[in-house]
Amino acid sequence: MGRLPGMVCPAVAVNKVIAIPPEPLVHMAPDGSAISVPIPTAHFGPAPIMARFLSAVTREGMITDLKEHVPNMLPPSSGLIIHCHGGGFVAQSSRSHEIYLRDWACQLKVPILSIDYSLAPQAPFPRALEETLYAYCWAINNARIMGSTAEKVILVGDSAGANLNIGVAMKCIELGIRPPSGLFLAYVPVLVSIVPSPSRLLCLMDPLLPFGFMIRCMKAYACPPKDDASRTSSDTKTLEGSGTESFEEVSESDLQELAAHKSALSNGSDTLTSVSLTSLQSKPEADESVEDNGPPTPTEQNMSELLEKYVLDSDTDSEGRMIPVLRTEPEVEENVLFELPPRQDLGLSSKLGRAVGNIASYVTGTEPQQLPAVIKQGQSMSLGSESLEVLDSLMQRSPSDDMHFTIPRDPYLSPYLASDEVLKQLPPTKIVSVQLDPFLDDCVMFAKKLRKLGVVVSLDVIDGLPHGFLNFSQLSKEARSGSNQCVKRIQELLCM
User: Fold this and answer.
1) What tens digit of pLDDT does each residue of 183-222 get?
2) Is 467 known to be catalytic?
3) Cβ atoms of 365 and 481 closer than 8 Å
4) Which residue in the list 254, 270, 437, 441 is annotated as catalytic?
5) What interhelical angle do 211-222 and 252-261 show, nearest 10?
6) Non-local CB neighbours of 448 within 8 Å, separated by 6+ positions
7) Residue 31, class by beta-carbon neighbours within 10 Å (0-12 exposed, 13-18 middle, 19+ buried)?
8) What digits encode the pLDDT tens for the residues 89-146?
9) pLDDT tens-digit readout, 34-46
10) Which of 395, 433, 419 is nearest to 159 (CA)?
11) Residue 225, preceding bond cis, omega within 30 degrees?
């Protein structure tokens, strides 16, 4: 997903990676009082917080790569969007979510700051929440360098990122910090717990959020080692990028499983800017460009080959340009006994299911035709040794091996457990879920609870799309339509 934005997404005027330094930060509350924002220190002490700044247009005061003044520069925007990406608290980055953020920046014409919070298992709860709160306050204090007056600040997030956004809003209520003007939450889990609700049973057959992976995400994020709380920054090393610090209660196989899903922040051709509160008092210094990373690594080459061979096909858009699209139909071998009639397009879920099936065949070292799914002429249906080897490889690790842990009942981890006194103070909230989402029940019950408490809330349930559909908004017309619905709801929050 980190490679797709450059191929299929619209261009933006500003796309910069910035580092927010862990400096003392004072936030002016709505009542005029000065509040000291806590610096993130959980698990490994203070460290810079990475974020990506996106804007479709250049505005006055905005940090850009332009060396000369741009004539007719637009005035600052009254709105500011602060985004937290999904990924089960263990994976993805702002770069992998550019695939829809660029489009949102172009449609909304509002600056977007996407936070690259630290990921579990190296940084379990509450590290990500601390960093997101700090980055939120920093963004309000320094909105001018993002071309905004911050009159309207909307917290936007999907999945795990949406969970963090609710936690940030609750922290603002607790500490007396200015709360966000609105919350936009896409397929958000509000109860981080093993609850067998009807929709969560879908993850038993969900190609994008399988049960075993969801359990490992919960374990990695919500269950740090017992002795981890006593560690200080003096006896631990600072986590840099995608560090390799491990925890005893997270097994080696857990780390391997989660590492396979991680999408480390890659600067590529972006500009890395360290934005210090002290330096902002004067004119910002010239940006320092990141050096070229050179030719692609073997891993990147293998991933490109995987995408081209098993997932993506090419198509031509209305302007005659070649664009990548999800492969819709697998190749059918000749001399098959039964041939199904042509099928109608079953939508994104069907396409993703086939794509994941192709990837599974690639990972297990078998070609799709090696599996006994097609009966050829002159052959009987039987399980060969190759198929048994595939089954053995899939049964080597059972999800039950990962379920021996206890998740704390913390409202900042599971916002549904928060008190009514706190929840009724949440800002206007727009929730979008999907029909095939394991967290659909979470979204429905949370919306009902907020409405009962008098919070302005709306819930959209989109048909035929899976969890994480936003990351496929440039590859599927169904996902694109769902993304446009999200833009509409965010625009409503900006206009409230």
Assistant:
1) 999 999 999 988 888 888 877 777 777 888 888 899 999 9
2) yes
3) no
4) 437
5) 110
6) none
7) exposed
8) 999 999 999 999 999 999 999 999 999 999 999 999 999 999 999 999 999 999 999 9
9) 999 999 999 999 9
10) 433
11) no
Tokens representing 38 are: 């806590």
| Orientation of helix 477-495 relative to helix 98-108, angle to 10° | 50
The rounded distance, in Å, linking the Cα atoms of 164 and 170 is: 10
Measured distance between the N- and C-terminal CA atoms of the chain, rounded to whole angstroms:
33
Catalytic residue among 27, 43, 83, 467: 467
Domains and CATH numbers, the chain: 14-195+407-495 (3.40.50.1820)
Look up 313 and say whether it is catalytic. no
Whole-number Å distance between alpha carbons of 491 and 421:
28
Given the residues 159, 199, 414, 483, the one annotated as active site: 159
User: Which residue type sits at 388?
Assistant: L
Active site annotation includes 97? no
**Residue 404, Cα to own-chain centre: how many angstroms?**
27
* Single-letter code of the amino acid located at 384: G
- Spatial neighbors of 297 by CB under 8 A, at least 6 apart, are none
Using an 8 Å Cβ cutoff, are 17 and 3 in contact? no
**Neighbour tally for 169: CB within 10 Å:** 25
Structure tokens at 351: 């396409």
How far, in Å, CA of 167 to CA of 163, rounded? 7
